[in-house]
Amino acid sequence: MKLIFAGPSFYGAEIEISSDIELRPPAAKGDVLRAVEQGADVIGLVDGYFESTAAVWHKEILHALSNGVRMYGAASIGALRAAECAAFGMTGIGAIYDAYAAGYLEDDAEVALLHAPQDLGYAPLSEPLVNVRATLNHLEQNGLISDRQCQALIEVASSIFYKARSWKAILARAALPANEHAHIDALVRSFRVDQKKNDAVALVKAVEQERGRRSAAPASAWQFSHTSYFRLLAT
Predict the structure, then answer these.
(1) For the chain, what is the largest distance between any 2 Cα atoms, rounded to a whole number of angstroms?
(2) Other C-beta atoms lying within 10 Å of the C-beta of residue 23
(3) Burial of 209 (0-12, 13-18, 19+ CB in 10 A)
(4) 3-state secondary structure of 91
(5) Which of 65, 71, 129, 138 has the lowest tally of Cβ within 10 angstroms?
(6) What pLDDT, in 10s, does the model give residues 11-51?
(7) Residue 134 domain-assigned?
């Protein structure tokens, strides 16, 4: 069984998910463990809850890996957990994972965003900082804005609480002349990069290519320990 935990990172993605992949809502603590117990062989972790409920535990990911489940992570909390658990066999996908794995990104808040409920397709209601960085870096690399403008806008975006961050709020707080403000606003509307969506789509493609059965238990230098806290989670 193959499944993917995802929500707002998939919003607007024009991709057909293979019929052998089950798409589940964003993961919370215990969801990966339950998926393993239900027979999942391949798990893609994209989105997850972190504020209103406890986030996915590293321990349940290690449990999955120790049972031969192939774990992929990308785009959001999946990229974070993949960077943290890569040494144990979790596979990270995409530019956001690469940035965390390299230490270029460190803060969990880089991928945080406010979004609508499931009934409304998890539509994003704020702009995650990783998308702001990707968009501004794209504009700067293509000579559409200066390095000064790029760095100033990233600094402003970083200062805004994730639930309130939007391009309108970023540009409103930036000390830019009126002509620059209008110019950059137009550029963002035309060339905005949704890096979270791009990485989520890449994860889908990786999961689709996986075979649907568990690997042999990994022969590695680490061994899973059934600690008291994990036993509480599993009961």
Answers:
(1) 61
(2) 14
(3) exposed
(4) strand
(5) 138
(6) 988 888 888 999 999 999 999 999 999 999 999 999 999 87
(7) no
